[in-house]
Automatic annotation (TrEMBL):
UniProt-listed Pfam families: AMP-binding, AMP-binding_C
Annotated protein name in UniProt: Acyl-CoA synthetase short-chain family member 3, mitochondrial
All copies of domain AMP-binding enzyme C-terminal, residue ranges: 311-393
Residue ranges of every copy of the AMP-dependent synthetase/ligase domain listed in the record: 6-122
Compositionally biased region (Basic and acidic residues): 222-232
Domain of life (superkingdom): Eukaryota
InterPro entries assigned to the protein according to its UniProt record, in alphabetical order: AMP-bd_C (IPR025110), AMP-bd_C_sf (IPR045851), AMP-dep_synth/lig_dom (IPR000873), ANL_N_sf (IPR042099)
UniProt GO MF annotations: propionate-CoA ligase activity
Residue ranges of the region described as Disordered: 212-232
Matches recorded under Gene3D superfamilies: 3.30.300.30, N-terminal domain of ligase-like
Length: 456
């Protein structure tokens, strides 16, 4: 499965250099940098460091140039960091990347605005100039695309600097969806990149979207999930639970270490006959797969199920925002409402500018998605950094649980309890967190904001 992925998905030929920026503690690190690359007889780059600060935002590009890397694999988080620190491509332009065939993204969903920026940043071809942003999943008939086939005006240009998102899981062992570069010889053969999509299902992956019922529970709920509903496949463009019909393709996991019961209940009990990926998404009429978020990142606002990714897409388009994430917070009338945590691009901002930015983001969400989202400016927080794992994944569950902890404590406060301490987070912090100080800074910011207590 890994050799197939190296050759057919990534288009990495024996003898060529392959560079994945993940460390060996994560699936990409050992599966691709070590096993996949070496079994495919590739040169492989072992890299320790970040996209910035080691020593500057040109670190990745120096490696790509120095080692003549043909295929590069990184996370959307790295792109967001570069967008913040090198938005004008000053460091990027120091290096010739014309030899790089493919630039693959995975680990988190790459929102369209970030992917468009990345293509412009790498190739100096601005895809925004030729495609309008898609405001929500139901606008799929006019989903924004970018074709690498005519990037230099010729339908027979070579395969160079193709940037595409794709999707897989630790459990799958290798990619599940992608735009494959391995069997492509000219740019004219490359399917259009559809922004927000992770490509199409690969051979052997019988991917389906099943409708989700409101009483199915979420991943934080340890009670048994309902299996009384008949399994219904979603229509093209309809958001549901992403599943894979059994049998699973080669290379997938076959159990959990000494825990057969959890292997069944976690992955196969909820949807009999299917592997539950734990992700929410949809497939469009042309077969492009859109992985939007984890199942438990879907917000239920006044009985309306909304994907956090649609709010993130709109917020990220604001000119001051480098990256953001959206989580739900409890609301005593609507059940949940969204909260935006955003990191600003480098620069200085006055309080008035920050207040205007919050109002503009809230207005854009209302205009693009609808008033039902119920995003208020006061539920937008500008932070220095987002809490992430060492592999770059945003710890959304931690942020969500902070609000739950505040809501639970607020209920106790009505009975005379003391206020929460800004120096003690009453949660188990993930051991995989890269910087614990980030979590404490956000926790203090939340507790120092009066309406966080008063409007739960």
């Amino acid at each position: 499965a890994l050799v197939y992925a190296m050759r057919h998905v990534y288009g990495s030929n024996p003898g060529e250099a392959f560079f994945a920026s993940s460390d060996f503690g994560w699936a990409v690190g050992h599966s691709l940098t070590c096993y996949g690359a070496l079994m495919n007889r590739n040169e492989t780059v072992v890299y320790e460091g970040k996209p910035v600060g080691t020593p500057d935002p040109g670190a990745f590009f120096r490696v790509l140039s120095e080692y003549n890397v043909k295929v590069f694999f990184t996370s959307p988080t790295a792109l967001m960091i570069l967008r913040k620190e090198d938005n004008d491509a000053k460091y990027r332009r120091k290096y010739d990347l014309s030899h790089v065939r493919g630039l693959f993204l995975a680990g988190e969903r790459c929102v369209p605005e970030i992917h468009r920026w990345w293509i412009d940043y790498i190739t100096n071809n601005n895809p925004t100039a030729t495609s309008a942003a898609c405001s929500n999943s139901h606008d799929i008939a006019r989903a924004p695309e970018f074709s690498f086939a005519y990037m230099d005006g010729s339908p027979t240009n070579p395969v160079v600097n193709v940037s595409t998102d794709h999707w897989w899981q630790t459990e799958s062992g290798s990619p599940l969806t992608a735009i494959c570069l391995g069997d492509i010889t000219t740019g004219a053969d490359i399917p259009p990149i559809r922004f927000g999509s992770a490509g199409m299902a690969l051979p052997g992956v019988d991917l389906r979207i099943l409708r989700t019922h409101s009483d199915d529970g979420d991943e934080d709920d340890t009670s048994p999930k309902s299996t009384d509903h008949a399994l219904e496949e979603a229509a093209p463009g309809e958001i549901g639970s992403v599943v894979i019909k059994l049998p699973l393709p080669p290379g997938c996991f076959s159990g959990l270490w000494k825990n057969d019961k959890k292997f069944f209940t976690e992955y196969f009990e909820r949807f009999p006959g299917y592997y539950a990926t734990g992700d929410a998404g949809f497939v469009d009429a042309d077969g492009y797969v859109f992985i939007l978020s984890r199942d438990d990142d879907v917000i239920n606002v006044a009985a309306h199920r909304l994907s956090t990714s649609t709010v993130e897409e709109t917020a990220t388009r604001h000119p001051t925002v480098a990256e953001c994430c959206v989580v739900p917070r409890p609301h005593n009338i609507k059940g949940q409402v969204p909260v935006v945590f955003a990191v600003l691009k480098s620069g200085s901002y006055t309080p008035s500018q920050l207040a205007d930015a919050k109002s503009q983001i809230a207005a854009a969400v209302r205009s693009n998605i609808g008033a039902i989202v119920s995003l208020l400016p006061e539920n937008i927080f500008f932070v220095e950094k987002l809490p992430k794992t060492r592999s770059g994944k945003i710890l959304r569950k931690l942020l969500r649980n902070m609000f739950t902890a505040i809501a639970d404590h607020t209920a106790d406060t009505n009975r005379g309890s003391s206020r929460l301490s800004t120096t003690v987070i009453p949660l188990d912090l993930p051991a995989t967190m890269e910087d614990f100080a980030v979590a404490y800074d956000i926790w203090k910011q939340l507790l120092d904001t009066p309406h966080v207590y008063s409007k739960l």
